[in-house]
Specification:
The protein is α/β, with parallel strands linked by helices and 356 residues long. 37% of the residues lie in helices and 19% in strands. It has a 10-stranded mixed sheet, with helices on both faces. It has a two-stranded parallel sheet with strand order 1-2. Pfam families: Radical_SAM (PF04055), RlmN_N (PF21016).
Length: 356
Amino acid sequence: MNKKSIYSFTLNELADWLVEHGQKKFRAKQIWDWLYKKRVDYFHEMTNLNQECLDLLNEKLVIGTLKEEIKQESKDGTIKFLFKMTDGNLIETVLMKFNYGYSVCVTTQVGCNIGCSFCASGLLTKDRDLNAGEIVEQIMNVQKHLDKRNKEERVSHIVVMGIGEPFDNYNNTMNFLRIVNDQKGLSIGARHITVSTSGLAKKIYDFADENIQVNLALSLHAPNNELRTKIMKINKAFPLEKLMPAIDYYLEKTNRRITFEYILLKDVNDHKEEAKQLVQLLKNKRHLSYVNLIPYNPVDEHNQYSRSEKKAILDFYQILLENGINCGVRVEHGTDIDAACGQLRSKQMKKEKQKV
Ligand code: SAH
Ligand code: SF4
């Protein structure tokens, strides 16, 4: 049986686990210091633990489970990592450099069951959820990569926008967020973390009730049900009349700004009419809304879609702006290295299939 990753424990869980196994509670804090501040790779480097405690950790737990398969670096400094997990499944993690710091995009599931019609991750149904440790480990591997380059560089921001639907793996995603946010560990500020969902309305209510300051982004992509159902079949289960009240609840409860993601697909959802409908949909919450217009990253298998013309993007943006909706056009990172979610993984899996 595979040993459990030590990265999957919150600090309290690790303390409880140690006590259950006859160790002192205070060891948890020492171990976290080695894991997240000194960032060691092996238990035997934890020199202030006694032999009995080291033996226990070595016998029952592991530090690293991910194996780096591919690392692609883009001209703009974006780095895409492809990791192999212990069961052989591949996942992607992306490191991006911004003027405000380093941001990492993490994967939460192997594949995705939501199956949006434009997305490379949805091409394959979900194989399994990642556990919290596997999500934390993506951040740790990237941080260790930065450590090797320069001891001062830190992952300062996280976006949960890689492969998978985080709210379809809710508990592991929440544990991941608590672990990386904990001041005794990596201490990445909650306000610097954003979780993106395709719109699982029920879980948006749960997320609003969590006592955590993490940002929420909603992949909206269309301003009416007909169009949204056409491009995102999840809209059948959670149409706008169910989704928008969940968003209103979130806004009321948290008073935090929400980001609406809107991929612009040529001649599909990028007409002026849709921009006007979007204004109507958001006008009663515009003080807490930000619309992120995303240029589509073409996916080989979805050739019915292409990127909107520059003029269409600009017109769309203008209409939102003129009507008082905060918005921006996403600056792309790493387009030369398949950086859209799921693209590197799906290419690598095709290659592996060809080998068989
Ligand atoms: N499942 C979640 C989070 C992962 S997808 C969600 O859907 O929100 C993260 C974002 O990338 C979503 O807004 C998604 O719509 C977008 N995306 C997916 N495929 C894309 C592509 N080919 N080009 C641009 N954005 C894409
Ligand atoms: Fe899944 Fe998000 Fe891709 Fe939709 S866009 S298939 S929810 S990963």
